[in-house]
Amino acid sequence: MRVKAIGIAPYAGLKRLMEELAKEDPEMDLVVEQGDLEEGVDIARRAEKEGYELVISRGGTASLIREAVSIPVAEIPVSGYDMLRVLTLLKDYRGEVAIVGFPNITRGAAVICDLLNLSVHTVTVRKPSEVEEQLESRRRQGIQVVVGDVVTVKAAEKLGMHGLLITSGREAVLDAFEEGKRVYRLFSRLRREASLYRNILDRDRRGIVVFGGKERILFRNPAAARFPLSAPAVERAIQELVEESLRRGQSESRLLPLEESGVQIAAVPLDDRSGETRVAIHLEKCRFAVSPEKWGCVEIRHTRSEPKETAFHRFVGKSGALREAIQSAQKYSEWDVPVWISGEEGTGKEMFALAIHQASPRGDQPFIAVDSGCLKPEEWNELIADAVAGPFRRGTLYLKNAEKIPAKVQKRLGALIADEGDGPRWLISTVVDLGKEVRRGAFDRKLYQLLGRAHLPLPPLRERKEDMDDLIPLFIAEGNSKYGKSIVGMESELIEELKRLTWPGNIEELKRAVEAMVLKSDGHYIGRRETADILERLKQEASRPVGRELDWTGTLEEMEIQIIQRVLVEEGMNQTRAAQRLGINRSTLWRKLQNVHRETPPGNKR
Ligand SMILES: Nc1ncnc2c1ncn2[C@@H]1O[C@H](COP(=O)(O)OP(=O)(O)OP(=O)(O)O)[C@@H](O)[C@H]1O
């Protein structure tokens, strides 16, 4: 490897020496020009433009060049030999001598003068402009001879003094050649590496932008131009993500709905030992159009605002059923498997799905909740494309009302899940009995079997009424902050009445009812009097069919089971009263109830 180098010699003799030595070095392709200080800098600048890869120069000239160009600069050192040579010359000189120069010269000179027992004044300067001033005052002291670099010698001549130049010897020049080649090799290796990374970044289809202190953009790849970086929503999201990622010292991401499609934005703090805070922003377009008009069916959340250990802390209620569900969900969150959550409307399915996501290793990625009933066929295609190869693949996709997924999509989902390749974590929820849907051919059997491996059945509120003792105060508190009230509780008689209702809309319905009561109440306690109309409405609601509408597609036996279930619920699970209403005796009811339990999906005790 030959190095195309430019030598910049501050004095003529050095030019000659460098040229002579370069001829003997097969790796050195050296052209030498003469130039001191600024003159040398101009030569170096020009040489860099002309494609030279290395500069070799000396002393102050080399230092100035280093500041001005971005190719490596090797310096011919002023060696001990050089100094020794010039001082030996002065050994027998009787008059006084001064050495005037930059620290690189005076430091070594002082030691040598000491060794040779020479009495020489050493004067250190920091700027070329100081040289003349120093020489002037030495001259006034009667000193006639000064030793130094080219600046010193030139100034001495101007003032009528004798200037002795410290010339560089062969060894110093050869040292500089070796140093230059070493630095050049290192430099070109780094440059090759940088160009490799640059190439990778330039071809990345993600937009990549690197910010360094005070929102300065240090780098952006060509793909970044496709993203509206200065759109207010994007700017805000980037700023928040940068702050968040630096605060936590980890990557943070967010899916942002933009006009024509969604964009996944991630902030990655860079630990590049530069001593400067740098954050890379990755931008990736979704194919799935997360447009505002679809916000009813698609919701994207970013959750890692709390430590993942607290994901399940928001659940209120001490019933065994709830605690059991939380335990299973915690277990499922650790495995990256699809989970099927079933339960009547408002039982907390989405809350569980979100908690599973948050507690999982994907918690810092987006959680995308999709209402399966809302999507058109082409939107399913986009959604799956983003799930397989787009930004959704790292997050969690929660498909609610999964019984409404079109048959074709069920098959594709089944194949995707069975494949177990890279892709999102799938969570799905249903309000209907999927087992029965499978039996009547309305749901894909393979998908059902894959989902059944991790099933989380959520019991309706009427089967865990003790949870209401904790839920009611929680919803009062939420109502207080929503409506600016300061209610401290609810009359116990009213609580008892609420517990007697069947709550077909479950926790969601309870929440809305309590909030409505908070809004109506003026005192510190919610009483029955001022909330009588709400209670009445709830009673009417409670008499509507529980769970879902009667399903007329099943067999006679299946419909009988549905009727028994509904009457039982409406009679507050009282079997005697239910049997009376149905016109059968209790033992017949009991026998039929055994069928009910057999028909219910595994673990879903209704
Ligand atoms: N154990 C609980 N503690 C506190 N709040 C709860 C609990 N369970 C559910 N909730 C609240 O009840 C409401 C309904 O829950 P969620 O939306 O998760 O139900 P869902 O089963 O997904 O409903 P749907 O079937 O209608 O989509 C939410 O506001 C949720 O925060």
Write the layout of secondary structure elements.
Blueprint: E1 3-9, H1 12-23, E2 28-34, H2 37-49, E3 54-58, H3 59-68, E4 73-76, H4 80-89, E5 97-101, H5 103-116, E6 120-124, H6 128-140, E7 145-148, H7 150-158, E8 162-165, H8 170-203, E9 207-212, E10 216-220, H9 232-248, E11 252-257, E12 262-270, E13 278-285, E14 298-301, H10 320-334, E15 339-342, H11 349-359, E16 367-371, H12 377-388, E17 396-400, H13 407-419, E18 425-430, H14 434-439, H15 445-451, E19 455-457, H16 468-483, E20 489-490, H17 492-500, H18 506-520, E21 525-526, H19 532-542, H20 556-570, H21 575-582, H22 586-599
Parallel strand pairs: 1-2, 1-3, 3-4, 5-6, 5-7, 7-8, 15-18, 15-19, 16-17, 17-18, 20-21
Antiparallel strand pairs: 9-10, 9-13, 11-12, 12-13, 14-16
Helix pairs in contact: 1-8, 2-3, 4-5, 6-7, 10-11, 13-15, 16-18, 20-21, 20-22, 21-22
Protein name: Transcriptional regulator with PAS, ATPase and Fis domain
Keywords: ATP-binding, Nucleotide-binding, Transcription, Transcription regulation
Domain Sigma-54 factor interaction: 315-519
Key features of this structure:
alpha/beta, 606 residues, 17% strand, 21 strands, Rossmann fold, disordered C terminus, binds adenosine-5'-triphosphate, 47% helix, 6-stranded mixed beta sheet, 6 domains, Beta-Lactamase
CATH topology of the largest domain: Rossmann fold
Quickly count the domains.
6
CATH architecture of the largest domain: 3-Layer(aba) Sandwich
Q: Describe the biggest sheet? A: 6 strands, mixed
pLDDT < 50 stretches: 597-606
